[in-house]
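[step 3/7] fold_predict: job queued, chain A
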Amino acid sequence: MEAATSSTGPTPPAPAAPPSASGSPRFPAWLLAFAALVVVSASLLALAVVGGDSLPERTGPPIEELAVERTVLRPGEIELTLRNVGPDAVTVAQAFVNDAYVDVRAGAEDAVGRLERDTLVLDYPWQEGQPYLVSLLTSTGLVIEHQIAAAVETPKADSGFFGLMVLLGTYVGVLPVVLGMLFLPALRRASGQWIRILMAVTVGLLAFLALDGTLEGLDLANASGGAFGGTELVFLGIALAYLALTAVDRWVSGRRERAGASASSSGLRLAFLVALGIGLHNLGEGLAIGSAYAVGELALGAFLVVGFAIHNTTEGIAIVAPLADRRVAPPKLLGLGLIAGAPAIVGALIGASVDNAELSAFLLGIGVGAIVRVIVQLVPSLRDTAGRVLDAATAAAIAAGAVALYLTGLLVSV
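[step 4/7] structure written:
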């Protein structure tokens, strides 16, 4: 009875949380992390201030490395934008062009520190189309050389120049992709087996684009000065683009499932991802076009336009392949075409005005990463009724897509 009576009495207060095993109070996790960050930062600062003085001086001559990031040719002068990619400061004492001494009107007075930029303006009456070897003599006697394969005046960045880049990007990017999308009515009359084969052709097209973009990015990275990384930038761009597109796709898929979206929206989402991947690739393609035009290595003409039209028309077919059994409003189709083709305009503008190999390599990597993510999305659509991704038909279709893009790419070598 006593036990029953006591159970109906007031509930005793809950005991206080016991202290930690060591008897010390508990601190929030963020406070402990902040304290650790302060200790690490203070230690690194002390190491930077005191550690250098405690080590012996480096023996031997200074390590001088200069990379030419941009060459601008104007009548009677050559302008070089340099970046110090070595550990020691560099001072340019003299300059020679084809072994002839030239006056340096700007940029040769001060030392260029690590990762800093400087601009040299050389007085030299260059002739169009001729090759030139620029030799820079540093204050320590080191000679740094830069080759100009064929001299051509750098176009001025005025309204006419930017208008030409927009027009060129439209010709080689937007119009061919939209033309390729005109095959959609014919694709809608195809059977399910042919749709599966067409999706396999799309995978082959994208796989070749990824390979081509990777190789081109690596070439640009190797040709850069390497101040901010070379080939690492390509793979960094690939990883960032792949992870970003994966996150976006997961977010969109979650919203679509919660809203109970139809299969039509699923096909449109896949077409959007294909267009986005191709668009990022065309951004890199525009970079190559703009850079080649800026240094006089691009011959504008009907052959270039027709070549790109044939080449990029296949990309338009790849965009509408996921929509073959669905109805999509024309404005949405036009939007997909602009997503895939318009980046060529942006790339041409950047390539012609900036001409930075490291930036181009990074952007090409982003395009490759996006395309790889799209391929991962397309692979499940290749499965047959037995669950196989690769059979004789799909394997042949993937190979045909890659070969088709390779052959049309021969028409537009930049």
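[step 5/7] annotate
Residues 278 and 348 are 16 Å apart (CA to CA).
The chain has two domains: 66-148, 159-412.
exit 0
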